[in-house]
Amino acid sequence: MDLGIKDKKAIVCAASKGLGRACAMALAKNGVDLVINSRTASELEATAADIRAATGRAVTAVACDITTPEGRAQVLAACPNPDILVNNAGGPPRGDFREWNEADWMKAVNGNMVTPIMLIKAVVDGMVARKFGRIVNITSSSVKSPIAELGMSNGARAGLTGFVGGLARQVARHNVTINGLLPGPFLTDRLRSGRMDAAKKAGVPVDEFIAEHFKNSPTGRPGNPFEFGEACAFLCAASSGFIVGQNLLLDGGAFNSALG
Known about the structure:
This protein has 260 residues and is α/β, with parallel strands linked by helices.
């Protein structure tokens, strides 16, 4: 299927691994040139090389902290007029809200709400002027079904979702769409590392532990990052201009609702 985005330019944040990398790869396979970002230069350069080899597209790696004004300026200098923006950032830590101080909350809100908004602010008017733009915010399934121990993530990402709900309707008439992708469990390095201690205690390999853990879920497995990347590319398609302000939940059916 031709998504109609060949030769478009995209910024993909936190793209050295996991779901960000999957989104970057999927876009490049559809002919998009990329500026990708993460904090760790070695991992980011390796990912850029892999994407170039697999797709033949131009990939510029910008190693920086996207949650800072300086980091955002570096990325935007490398791609000042993107056609596509994929916002992504690592989630805040789990825990009891009684353990978190104001600085913890400010960091979570900055990384998972303010930073995406600042990037949207920097690029959306250019998209409007060019009559094409696709913005995808990678948030979390916890936006739809809050997870008690992820209170900071619930709050910050829900705040971003609420803001986007209003803005998306203002820019849609200019062929600029803003939507959310809400991941549930995907088989990433982060999921593996999060299950490592439990797997050791159980005395089984971590992948075996994960497979056992998810066998009773509706799909019987965690998601494959490839699937997430393909969903991202679909939302960025030229033909997806009528999908506005939506939040696509990719959780293998774990959230039980007749209306999604």
